[in-house]
Amino acid sequence: MQTSQLVLVGAVCWDLPAWHGRFYPEDLPEDWLLSYYNTQFQAVYLPVSIWGAASSETWAQWLADTQPEFCFVLEPGLQAFPQPASGRALFATPEWEREYVWWLDEAPDMRALAQRIARQAETGQPLFVFSRSGNLALLEQVLTLKQVLGY
């Protein structure tokens, strides 16, 4: 894992229809969505249907559109797709997820999350906090918690 960040926050995908006009400005071009997303979030969880279909050119663009410590967490699939050749693309096996991922929609308790972050900090390993639904209010709470905790 190539990140110095302890807590990385994001959603499943960045092109969520409910975010248009709410999170994304109305007039933002489609091809700027990931760059804009990366101004607020440090990671994205990508379903295999998205990352598995991406060409090497698409991957190169995604990597160019994001900051050097931005991470792409890849859902495993039944088919074998070639994983992008980048330390910023992490394959989320079930074992890896249990150790490094907090699913915000399933456990929105900020106190419990703060305790998990503290435990994770003891190991020096990052914790990825993702929202499956793209709940902006919860994501904003996590970003505030991250700031309050000094991460």
Mind explaining what this structure looks like?
With 151 residues, the protein is α/β, with parallel strands linked by helices. The protein has one domain. The chain has helices at residues 33-37, 48-51, 56-64, 94-100, 110-123, 136-149, and strands spanning 7-12, 43-46, 71-74, 89-91, 101-103, 127-131. Strand 1 (7-12), helix 1 and strand 2 (43-46) form a beta-alpha-beta unit. The longest helix has 14 residues, at 110-123. The radius of gyration is 15 Å and the shape is globular.
Percent in strands: 15-25%
Structural domain tally: 1
Query: How widely separated are the two ends?
Result: 17 Å
Overall SS class? alpha/beta
Give me the oligomer status: single chain
Mean pLDDT: 92
SS element count, helices = 6
Global shape: globular
* Helix and strand run: EHEHHEEHEHEH
Spatially, the strands of the biggest sheet line up as 4-3-2-1-6-5
What gyration radius follows from the Cα positions, in whole Å? 15 Å
Determine the fraction of residues in helical runs and give it as a percent range. 25-40%
> How many strands, which pairing sense, and closed or not: the largest β-sheet?
6 strands, parallel
Low-confidence stretches: none
> Would you report the number of β strands?
6
